[in-house]
Amino acid sequence: MSAPRLSDRDPRVDADELVGAMVPPPRFDGVRFATYLPNPDEPSQAAAVQACRAFAERVSAAGAAKGFFGSLFRRAAEEGKPGLYLDGGFGVGKTHLLASLWHAVPGPKAYGTFVEVTNLVGALGFTETVQRLSGHKLLAIDEFELDDPGDTMLVTRLIKELAAAGVAVAATSNTLPDKLGEGRFAAADFLREIQSMSAKFTVVRVDGPDYRHRGLPDAPDPMSEEELLAKADSTPGATLDDFDALCARLAQIHPSRYGRLLDGVSAVFLRGVRPAPDQAVALRLVAFGDRLYDRDIPVAVSGEALSELFTEEMLRGGYRKKYLRAVSRLVALSR
């Protein structure tokens, strides 16, 4: 009996589920500050742990005083900034630290990737999103990015509204906040909004090599067609899809439903992998890869290697860091 196909699924997620699902991915259920092991050769990592601990304590202590963080916006120079921003390369443990911070703060609180937060606004509308999140102590945003002018305006406004309601914001990214959007659209036209948002964050640098590639072999070679089919059929809970068919299906599903698409899946097998034909497909693959990584679902392929998903032209463009992060994660899953 052949393995089922992801491209045959039709996942559904209602608004309440979207809000309720705003928690760290299962792979980060057990992480805490104490489980983060700083690289002794990278002193910024130990410093980042201390900065995150202090921020968590500040948010927790201020939880009962509604409006505390709103007042910080007015007194940033005296009291410190109301947001914490972890900047660093791939695989240095920024998500580990962000999830640890989230665990350290009492609820109500929310955690999501940047894409999940914007998807939430798309599903609920801006006003309802603010209403649902304004009672939270903390909003943690992983992989913060601004890919277009609409997102720039949306996120700056959302942060302003939530901060005025007393919500603290912590974020991770591979790009300093005043550089977000650079190379992706006419950032100069939106410089005021970008700087307004970045001024709300204390930036903490986290340096170091990508732990996912530290001392590990390169990604395995793609399987032969016969080997892939046999492995998929013998793996309980696995799915098997033609790469092009899956890409076509992802175009029909809102990215907020990609996680539900993977419910109950133990491994993903893809036939005929090739470089993404255009930017739209590539960005959907990034979002899909993030959901695979969140759930720690192994990936095996035939055709081209996963490291070849994005063309050289794509890797030279404004989404370079996003694509490199996706390669880092997918290669880790393919091992």
TrEMBL record:
InterPro entries, per database record: ATPase_AFG1-like, P-loop_NTPase
Record carries keyword Nucleotide-binding: yes
Source species: Saccharothrix mutabilis subsp. mutabilis
Keyword entries, A-Z: ATP-binding, Cell cycle, Cell division, Nucleotide-binding
Example GO biological process: cell division
Superkingdom field: Bacteria
Gene encoding the protein: zapE_2
Transmembrane segments: none
SUPFAM superfamilies: P-loop containing nucleoside triphosphate hydrolases
Gene3D superfamilies in the record: P-loop containing nucleotide triphosphate hydrolases
Pfam families reported for this sequence: AFG1_ATPase
Descriptive protein name: Cell division protein ZapE
